[in-house]
């Protein structure tokens, strides 16, 4: 005669059925629920955000495994050649090996040009070996266009408050004292690209080429209204930089990149 199942086996079967029924009920309730499903909104990748992204990618090429690569290192020789080629100059190895040549040929403007090209600027940016060329161009855009892609303003202009990632910071070099009105296409200047904004603590982080012979980050302080605080010093975020600070009085303008593009 066949034996009846034990009590223990019977309980296991009952529990298994209950769990299965509960799971099925829960899944049915989930799919039939009137509760709104969470909506995932993908943030639009604008040209301005792409500029900031490509700037950081370029920064990473010069900073690997915790080490900073400088301009005379053979590891970045091909990178510098690509920068200069975009500026219309075919640079040779012996020139890049020469400290005097490097000193007299700053590559910060062709670095900016390279980033703009990689971000997709195409023919919408005047690639140059001089920052002043595109600074003046962006300044003139304000007069000629209603919604220019690039628009340069004096650092005190109301439109210069709260720079955003992708915008450019315009600075004087070699003790020059140009401003947005007096600078011309042949002047010596410098620009960084903003990659981070901290409104709570009142600063921005920018990235520039040929800063300490590498691609470097800079912390720039803002006042409570979001303008560059010209009473303070910026700080280059490089432990090996011999002179890591400089006066923010050197900053004379902001190039805003239209966030609608």
List keywords for this structure.
7 helices; 34% helix; two-stranded antiparallel ribbon; 10 strands; disordered N terminus; 261 residues; alpha+beta; globular; eight-stranded antiparallel sheet
Question: What does this entry look like structurally?
Answer:
This protein has 261 residues and is an alpha+beta fold. It has one domain (47-257). The chain has helices at 7-32, 47-62, 77-86, 93-96, 99-104, 108-119, 131-144, and strands at residues 63-64, 67-68, 150-154, 168-172, 189-198, 203-208, 216-221, 233-236, 245-247, 251-257. It has an eight-stranded antiparallel β-sheet. It has a two-stranded antiparallel sheet with strand order 1-2. A hairpin with a 4-residue loop joins strand 5 and strand 6 (203-208). Helix 2 crosses helix 6 (108-119) and helix 3 (77-86) crosses helix 6. It is globular and about 45 Å long. The chain starts with 6 loop residues before the first helix and ends with a strand. The relative contact order is 0.14. Residues 1-5 and 9-33 have low confidence and may be disordered.
């Amino acid at each position: 005669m066949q034996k009846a199942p034990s009590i223990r086996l019977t309980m296991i079967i009952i529990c298994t059925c209950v769990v299965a029924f509960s799971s099925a009920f829960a899944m049915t309730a989930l799919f039939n629920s009137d509760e709104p499903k969470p909506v995932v909104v993908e943030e639009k990748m604008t040209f301005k955000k792409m500029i900031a992204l490509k700037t950081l990618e370029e920064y990473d090429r010069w900073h690997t495994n915790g080490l900073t690569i400088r301009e005379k290192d053979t590891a970045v020789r091909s990178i510098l050649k690509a920068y200069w080629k975009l500026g219309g100059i075919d640079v040779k190895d012996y020139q890049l090996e020469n400290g005097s040549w490097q000193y007299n040929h700053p590559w910060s403007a062709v670095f900016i040009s390279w980033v703009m090209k990689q971000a997709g600027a195409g023919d919408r940016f005047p690639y140059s070996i001089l920052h002043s060329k595109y600074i003046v161009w962006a300044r003139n855009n304000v007069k000629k266009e209603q919604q220019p892609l690039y628009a340069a303003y004096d650092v005190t202009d109301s439109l210069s408050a709260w720079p955003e990632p992708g915008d450019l910071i315009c600075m004087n070099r070699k003790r020059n004292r140009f401003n947005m009105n007096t600078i011309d296409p042949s002047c010596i200047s410098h620009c960084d690209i903003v990659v981070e904004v901290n409104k709570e603590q009142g600063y921005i982080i920018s990235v520039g080429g040929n800063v300490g012979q590498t691609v470097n980050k800079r912390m720039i302080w803002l006042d409570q209204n979001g303008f560059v605080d010209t009473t303070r010093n910026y700080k280059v975020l490089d432990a090996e930089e011999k002179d890591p600070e400089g006066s923010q009085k050197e900053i004379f303008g902001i190039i805003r990149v239209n966030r609608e593009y």
